[in-house]
């Protein structure tokens, strides 16, 4: 008889512990500091269940980060969201994991390309702390490069047909989203944790030490 019959709350707790580990602390506390081309994936496993968190700059997934301005851009966001909702972020070969829950959010950064301009002209006093975000470049009144970043965040729960410990999981994200160059992945289970940098040539994460 299995005693490994816990609720998803336990997994979510493990994922929380993973997220606060050193590897992810810096990025997690400063979402605006993301780097285009890179994405993060964290997975907590127990038995046949996995909870996965995926975070990526929107640039990697739709090619822009500003709010959509055209029907094509709105469609790109809808398409990316739909894909992330309906495809397992990780799976064993043969699609043996079923999605039991999937939530996708597009988080817009501070929408400042337009509204920012008003108070950006004269830097008379430097009292405004929040004026300085992750980007250190001061582009005076030149807003040719909009500084508003956005990200997609996905939280997904999988039910797989076999226990996941020791398995190698593959992500299809690289083939779906050409803008992703590297995924920094980490996993945690009741008995261990590990990580790997995933690329299109090596899109796999092995869940063993
Ligand atoms: Zn960005």
TrEMBL record:
Region (Disordered): 108-150
Signal peptide: 1-25
One Pfam match: ZrgA
UniProt KW keywords: Signal
InterPro entries, per database record: ZrgA-like
Taxonomic superkingdom: Bacteria
Protein name: DUF2796 domain-containing protein
Gene source species: Tamilnaduibacter salinus
């Amino acid at each position: 008889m299995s005693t490994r019959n816990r609720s998803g709350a336990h997994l979510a707790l493990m994922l929380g512990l993973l997220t606060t580990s050193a590897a992810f602390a810096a990025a997690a506390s400063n979402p605006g500091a993301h780097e285009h081309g890179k994405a993060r994936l964290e997975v907590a496993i127990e038995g046949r269940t996995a909870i996965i968190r995926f975070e990526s700059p929107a640039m990697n997934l739709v090619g822009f980060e500003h709010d959509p301005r055209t029907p094509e851009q709105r469609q790109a966001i809808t398409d990316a969201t739909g894909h992330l909702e309906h495809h397992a972020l990780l799976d064993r070969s043969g699609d043996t994991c079923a999605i039991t829950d999937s939530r996708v959010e597009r988080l817009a950064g501070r929408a400042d390309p337009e509204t920012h301009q008003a108070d950006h002209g004269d830097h008379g006093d430097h009292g405004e702390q929040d004026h300085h975000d992750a980007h250190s470049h001061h582009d005076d009144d030149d807003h040719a490069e909009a500084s508003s970043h956005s990200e997609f965040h996905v939280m997904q729960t999988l039910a797989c047909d076999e226990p996941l410990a020791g398995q190698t999981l593959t992500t299809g994200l690289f083939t779906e989203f050409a803008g992703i160059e590297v995924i920094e992945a980490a996993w945690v289970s009741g008995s261990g944790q590990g990580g790997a940098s995933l690329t299109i040539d090596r899109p796999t994460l092995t869940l063993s030490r």
